[in-house]
Amino acid sequence: MPLIMDGVGTPSFYAAKKSLDRASSTRSCGTRAEFINLALINNMPDAALEDTETQFFRLLEAASGDIPVYIKLYSLPGIARSNRAEQHLRKYYQDFEDLWDSDFDGVIMTGTEPRHSDLRAEPYWKLLTSVLDWAEGHTVSTVLSCLAAHAGVLYSDAIPRHALADKQSGVFEFRRACDHAITRSISETIHIPHSRWNEVRETDLLANGYTVLTKSSTAGVDLFAKKKKKSLFIYFQGHPEYETCTLLKEYRRDIKRFLRGEQETYPAMPAGYFDATGVEILNDFREMARSDRQEAVFSAFPEAAVTGSLQKTWQSASVCVYRSWLQYVSSRAWLRSATARLCVLDDGAKREALA
Asked: What are the residue ranges of helices labelled H in 261-302?
């Protein structure tokens, strides 16, 4: 089922494909149970802003099945933006104040690249925590991705994030840790991309009442959940929304930073992502870059040679997880709507409605 953009223009990629429809605030669906109303709060830095839109649009479209999904785009004010990104936000994103008065079944909020080791020092921290408080009482479920997940548990339960010895980048195998509505349809083991310098630990999560849904002996916790007031909060340390080339783009960016002298060490190759031929080609380039560290060397980066070697093993699991989430949101939204309707009926009408 195509996604339906609610109230504003359609970003250019999907406008060209005509896969994402535009709608006014008046819904064509007959009853509340026939659609899901979502907010995507996209806080990614400028270089990934539009890619992240596309990733979530494609994933939600694949996962939605027969249920129309109406979606509004937002981004937290206070994140540094270029002029081009600001223009994009003004053209396609809602004024953030619109969020408080809108009716959403679910919210997906991404992270962004932090400027401070303590997330509470970020300029958008107060607004981010206001969104978390609002979502607890006004949504059926809320998804927090990567840095937003770390911010969420820090704010709610003072759970710290811990720096890793090196960036955890690649596609890792995780196993299902328990039976839960969100993971019931996935295999016992799945593969999910991760790209992060920090982690929250299973012991801290369990001690504070979180349910760990997927985890790995080598990569830690992937997916976890906790009910907060009216909303089921779902947390991803990884990125099921990533497309085939996303980790390659990030690896290229980190290599450029090394060659420019912006980071001291050459970035580790994403694990479980390239085939043997791709690994060999990239190891050869690494040796050349280390021996002649200057930005001009990047022109020889063998992107075309390794693109065909990428291993995309996570798509089916990602669709399953988000399909289960959308089904959960749809069913609980229907119950909420039905309960609200019953509250305004007299006793006779209630018995008739439930018959």
From this structure: 276-291
